Amino acid sequence: MTHKTLFSKESPVFIIAEMSANHDRDFDRAVDIIKAAAEAGADAIKLQTYTPDTITMDCDSDLFTIKGTIWEGRTLYDLYGEAYTPWEWHGPLKKVADDLGLVFFSTPFDFTAVDFLEELDVPCHKIASFEMVDIPLIRKVASTGKPVIMSTGMATEEEIEEAVAAFRDAGGTELALLKCTSAYPAPPEEMNLRTIPYLAERFNVTAGLSDHTLGIEIPIAAVAAGAQVIEKHFCLNRGEDGPDTSFSLEPAEFKAMVEGVRKVEKALGTIHFSVTSKQKDSTRFRRSLFVVRDMEAGETFTPETVRSIRPGDGLHTRHYEEVLGRQATRALKKGEPLDWDMVKHNDNKH
Q1: Nearest Cα to 109, choosing from 130, 94, 93, 92?
Q2: Is 322 found in the same domain as 188?
Q3: Which of 42, 66, 224, 276 has its CA 20 to 30 A from that of 119?
Q4: Are strands 44-49 and 14-18 parallel, antiparallel or unpaired?
C-alpha cells in the first residue's frame, strides 16, 4: 500500500497540534479541541494511545514516584490514569478530524496500541522521546511501513543512531527526527535549535521540533533553522487545571504560530540573486554616471563635471575612470545621464 507523504524536505512545514491530556477526560472537549486546531491552521491532530497498565504498573514505591517536574509527588500510574485518552474515543475522534481535513494519528506506547491504531488505519505513527530507547517498539512501528515521527529528547547521538538503524532494519523508510527538550516547560536556552539541520544531514531524514517552551517564538525560529515538522501542545484554555495545559498553546496563540511559520517558510524561498518582480521598479534608483554641471563641447570630464549619483539612468559606475580626462562630444546640460555618444574616444575601452 502506498502512503501519502506527509513530511519531507521539499514539503510545506507539517504542523501538529498535540492534544495529549488536554481533553480532561471529556469527549466533547476533545472534539472541540480538534475543531479549534483545524481553525487555527494545524495540519494534524495527535493523540497518545496507552492505558496506565500499558505504559507502567500500579506501584507506589519510590521508583514509580515522579520527582523534579510539574507532576512532583504523583505516581506514574496515577498520572497516566488521569491523562490517557480512552481507546473507544479514537475512532469517533478520527472521523471528526477526517471530516475537517486534519491528519489524525497518535503515539503508541506498546504493541497493542500499534495494532489498535493500525486497525484505525492511521496514516503515520509517532515515537515519543521517552520511548526512543524502546527498540522493539520502534521495530514494531517501522514494520507497518508507514511514515514515523520520532522525538529525540534526552537521547545521545549514539542512541539516535541505534533507533534509526532499528527503524530502517525493520523496513522503515519515511522518518522524521524531532529535536526535543524533555522539560515541561522547556527553557529557551536549552533548545539548541542548530541541532535540527544537523539531524537532517547526519541521518538523512526530515528534521523538526517537538516544542515544550512557552510561547510561539521557538517553533518559528526552528523553521528558519530548517525544521520541516513542528509539534506543539494545544489546549482550549491554559487556565484550566490539566497535566499539560501549562505548556500548551491556546487557539489564538497556535494560529499566530502557524501564521508566523508560513511567513518564514515563504521568506526562506530558494537561493536567488536575480531581480524579483517587486524590486524592478527600484533598480532605477541605483547609482550611475550623470553630468552634474553644464559643459561645453570639447570640455574635459572631471570629478566636478561627472559624478556617480542616483538614479540609475546613466552609464554604469564601472566606467567612471574611463570617462575622466576625455572630452564631451557636444554641449551637455546639468542632469543629463551620461552616455557613450557624449564621450570622445580614440580606443575601444568601452
Answers
A1: 130
A2: no
A3: 42
A4: parallel
pLDDT digits (tens, 9 = 90+) for 185-211: 888 999 999 999 999 999 999 999 999
Residues 157, 159, 165, 170: what is their CA dihedral angle, to the nearest 10 degrees?
A: -150
Q: What is the domain-level CATH number for residue 122? A: 3.20.20.70
**Residue 254: domain span:** 14-268
Over the stretch 110-158, which tens digit does the pLDDT of each residue have?
Answer: 999 999 999 999 999 999 999 999 999 999 999 999 999 999 999 999 9
Asked whether residue 299 is domain-assigned, the answer is yes
Nearest Cα residue to 231 out of 218, 241, 243, 242: 218
In a domain, 337, yes or no: yes
The residue assigned the cell 513542528 is 230
Is residue 293 situated within a structural domain?
Answer: yes
- Cα→Cα distances 276→263, 272, 309, Å: 18, 9, 23
| Number of domains comprising the chain | 2
Give φ, ψ of 104 to 5 degrees.
-110, 120
